């Protein structure tokens, strides 16, 4: 049977896929379905039936409900709304919070089994606070359409959805977001700094873009300078959590006589961690010139070398014979990739800490490291993005 977009199907949901959709099967092909839960039977509409091997669909109604289903944490994203009118950005918000973490662990387990080789057990995905998973976003991106409507995009769409709430955002960010009216078409970012001030960054489609504002973020007693539109962790407690996790796996393992590397170092978060653990010969590498400038300032008390370069290019230019201690890798969502993994391996460091925001990219890179003789000593998972499919994993590797 041939199908096309628009066909309605009754489907049994059997699993979760990487990326926040759910798995069903129809006439021998996989169907990726939004807004469902494993164990449910849903009525869904095909949105993409062009491929022979898989289709994509959106759930319209639940025929047999999972015990883990809850009213969506964001009413504007609830299944009771037409799919075209559901706000995006909280793709697991209809699932009981503890079960979200179970499903995230399942995604990691399947990625490790498929790409990293045998024998690795996925960790529990740990909560980092005891709340209900709302009120954590210090950064929110909204969009403005041609009619001046301000809101998030609809899920899997570039259609702007007007909303009356932002439950994942910090209270001040949400209030500021709801106050925005009749802006120029484009994008608006809202960023709350360590002092609680909300900065509004307007990115109009046409016209001059405002210069980057420098803000301050805080991790423990350390202050970090960063562009308001630059990269910093979104969850209010994420940077502290990751700093503590890296600190715990490396405590007592830093040899001050060796050279330590913080790769994809941003504004210097983990370089500061390494320095406080005793690293004295330390280099942080980041491709963003602005981030490197901030890293130089942020790391000035530790006299760290901050280098602007692509990580793969930097590794190929290192002198032979360098005695490498610890390497921290915090790559973007695409992962480090084979060239970087092989470049790090060539340094023969004492230990590698890999901070990952994508389970499949992590699993692929761990597979490459293991093929090169590295052992995965530990894995830790953190639910830094409740009600979304994203989470963070930290891996410690040694030989």
From TrEMBL:
Organism superkingdom: Bacteria
Q: Where does this protein have coiled-coil stretches?
A: none
**Listed GO biological process terms:** methylation
User: Which residues are recorded as binding S-adenosyl-L-methionine?
Assistant: 233, 264, 286, 330
Q: Sorted alphabetically, which InterPro entries does this protein's record hold?
A: MeTrfase_TrmA_CS, NA-bd_OB-fold, SAM-dependent_MTases_sf, TRAM_dom, U5_MeTrfase_fam
UniProt keywords (A-Z) are: Methyltransferase, S-adenosyl-L-methionine, Transferase
SUPFAM superfamilies for the chain? Nucleic acid-binding proteins (SSF50249), S-adenosyl-L-methionine-dependent methyltransferases (SSF53335)
In its UniProt entry, the species of origin is given as: Microbacterium murale
Protein name (Swiss-Prot/TrEMBL): 23S rRNA methyltransferase
One short Pfam family name for this protein?
A: tRNA_U5-meth_tr
């Amino acid at each position: 049977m041939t199908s096309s977009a628009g066909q309605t199907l009754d489907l049994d949901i059997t699993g979760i896929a990487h990326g926040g959709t759910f798995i069903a099967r129809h006439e021998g092909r996989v169907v990726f379905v939004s807004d469902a839960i494993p164990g449910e039977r849903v009525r869904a509409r095909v949105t993409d039936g062009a491929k022979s091997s898989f289709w994509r669909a959106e759930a319209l109604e639940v025929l047999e409900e999972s015990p883990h289903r809850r009213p969506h944490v964001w009413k504007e994203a609830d299944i009771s709304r037409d799919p075209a009118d559901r706000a995006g950005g909280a793709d697991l918000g209809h699932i009981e919070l503890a079960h979200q973490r179970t499903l995230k662990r399942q995604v990691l387990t399947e990625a490790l089994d498929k790409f990293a080789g045998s024998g690795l057990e996925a960790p529990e995905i740990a909560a980092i606070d005891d709340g209900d998973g709302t009120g954590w976003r210090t950064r929110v991106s909204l969009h403005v359409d041609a009619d001046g409507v301000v809101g998030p995009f609809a899920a899997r769409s570039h259609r702007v959805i007007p909303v009356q709430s932002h439950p994942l955002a910090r209270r001040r960010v949400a209030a500021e977001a709801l106050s925005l009216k009749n802006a120029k078409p484009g994008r608006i970012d809202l960023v709350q700094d360590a002092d609680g001030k909300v900065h509004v960054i307007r990115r109009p489609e046409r016209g001059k873009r405002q210069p980057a504002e420098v803000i301050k973020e805080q991790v423990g007693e350390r202050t970090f300078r960063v562009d308001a539109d630059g990269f910093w962790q979104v969850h209010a407690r994420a940077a502290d959590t990751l700093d503590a996790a890296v600190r715990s796996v490396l405590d007592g393992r830093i040899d001050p006589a060796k050279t330590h590397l913080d790769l994809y170092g941003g504004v210097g978060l983990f370089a500061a961690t390494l320095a406080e653990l005793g690293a004295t010969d330390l280099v942080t590498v980041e491709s963003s010139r602005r981030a490197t400038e901030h890293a130089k300032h942020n790391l000035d008390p530790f006299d760290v070398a901050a280098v602007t370069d692509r990580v793969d290019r930097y590794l190929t230019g290192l002198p032979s014979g360098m005695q490498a201690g610890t390497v921290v890798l915090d790559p973007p969502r695409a992962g480090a990739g084979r060239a970087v993994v092989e470049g790090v391996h060539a340094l023969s460091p004492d230990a590698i800490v890999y901070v990952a925001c994508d389970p499949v990219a992590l699993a692929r890179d761990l597979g490459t490291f293991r093929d090169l003789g590295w052992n995965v000593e530990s894995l830790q998972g953190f639910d830094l993005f409740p009600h979304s499919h994203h989470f963070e994993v930290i891996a410690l590797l040694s030989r």
